[in-house]
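agent: user wants the structure for 2-oxoadipate dioxygenase/decarboxylase from Polaromonas jejuensis. delegating to structure tool.
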Amino acid sequence: MTNLQTLLESCLPPEAVQQIHEQMYVHPALQSGVPGTVTRAELAQALNMALFHGLLQRVPAAQDYMASDVVGQQRQVVFDHGALRTVRWPGGALPAGEAAFTRLLRPLGFTLEGTYPLPRLKMTGRAYCHEDFPQEIAQFFVSELHPEQFSAPFQSAVTRVLSTSRDPLGPQDVADLEQLARDGKLPLQQALRLLPTMLQCFARQHGVFALEDYELLLAESAEMAWIATEGNAFNHATDRVSDVDAVAERQRELGRPIKDKVEVSASGRVRQTAFRAATVQREFLTPAGRVTRAVPGSFYEFITRAELAVGTAANDPVQGPRLDLAFDAGNATGIFGMTAAAK
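agent: tool returned. relaying tokens verbatim.
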């Protein structure tokens, strides 16, 4: 059994481990490690695969797509990137904004490759790419919302919602991450202990809150309202396909909830579209007691990346043309609308 399989079995049932291996392409080098020692790349890949599997469980349209267009066509997903939302605001025990995740991503081997202002959303997006396998290990697109740019009542609601936040990482986890950052690897038993805890970071860390606060947040920011109900769960996971326009047309013909248009980057090299967000049920507090309301959850995205021109700085002179792994602020803003549209 490979390190990757052993890691995944620490946080997923056996049938899920088999399923995700069948569904997702994994670079051969990530499946032939040294027994008993887990590299940062292996741990990063295991985390990404577990997060991808978790998102599939929350998005019915993605499950249908996987059954008919991936497994049904005997191909595998190339996991391009996962996205999560954070809020740069003090509250509870959780570090504010992206700091709650850079403490994981950097020891795992991810480095900041691009910053993308999203002024219409009053957010900032940042892309983290893996140093060892930049094209093969899925990137993280981490966005931060800036409450200071909203009204005072909005800021007060954010404070109340986040006040009960907990931090999933304990002292031993922090020590393991420091060791991983220093050595680039961990003994298998430490990695097996750390992975499930890291997965807990990609969830909602605060408790049930007032429906009145949710409605106040929703009036000014669909993105903050989403963070309030879903926390730091994967907002979406993205499948890298060869022709996103053809994929979108097929999904439309099948009657799946695909976005009306394909977003195209300023460079023309990055094309994206997505399913609309799944609808989920969440509890809220009211003076009369708890109530349940339907709200937007996560979604599944598709992306096509063209190669960089020969001679560009990011082009590898040995391996030849590389994909354009950058993001685009305009594309990101359009994709963010998938959750707003579902409210």
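agent: one observation worth passing along. The chain has one domain: 3-340.
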